[in-house]
Design brief:
Elements lengths: L3 H9 L16 H5 L8 H11 L11 H10 L3 E2 L7 E4 L10 E8 L3 E9 L10 E8 L3 E5 L17
Antiparallel strand pairs: 1-6, 2-3, 2-6, 3-4, 4-5
């Protein structure tokens, strides 16, 4: 059964993994997700981890705006987080679109902690070449896609700031 706990344990088991060679966007998740290797891979990581725990996402696109649209069309788009949600980000630059996705691990009123692929600890937020745990300001979040977890899910679905 796919639970948020199982998904986060699986996602966390990859923390520290890096693309090889550095700067190439070449990594193992593209093959698992059925995506082209050598492209930005945050969505490939999300799809691969979801598949490992038996989840089928509403969109398994490698393009983050399309993945977000899949959650919206499935009625699984939210403005408040839950543990295990896909968290979609728009970082301050000229693109003005969703650029990145990772998994919600925890949050407070002002920050969100995620486990992401193709990020870095202190460098690029959305093309950093590694799987990392990141804490960011919630103002960068566009919204949350909620996978269809098992009803036996034992993770709390409440704000961790409480």
């Amino acid at each position: 059964m796919a639970t948020a706990e199982k998904l986060l344990l699986t996602a966390a088991s990859e923390i520290g993994y890096t693309e090889d060679p550095p700067g190439s966007n070449r990594q193992k998740f593209a093959a698992e997700a059925g995506h082209v290797n050598g492209q930005p891979w945050c969505a490939s990581y999300v799809v691969a981890i979801a598949r490992r725990v038996g989840l089928h996402l509403p969109s398994e696109s490698a393009y983050t705006p399309t993945m977000a649209d899949g959650f919206k069309m499935a009625g699984a788009w939210h403005t408040t987080p839950a543990v295990g949600d896909a968290c979609f980000f728009d970082f301050p630059d000229a693109s003005h679109r969703i650029q990145h996705v990772g998994f919600v691990e925890a949050w407070t009123g002002t920050t969100i902690t995620t486990i992401d692929g193709n990020t870095s600890v202190s460098g690029s937020q959305y093309n950093g070449g590694a799987v990392c745990r990141r804490q960011r300001n919630r103002t960068l979040v566009v919204g949350f896609g909620r996978p269809a977890y098992s009803v036996e899910d034992d993770m709390p679905w409440t704000d961790t700031a409480s």
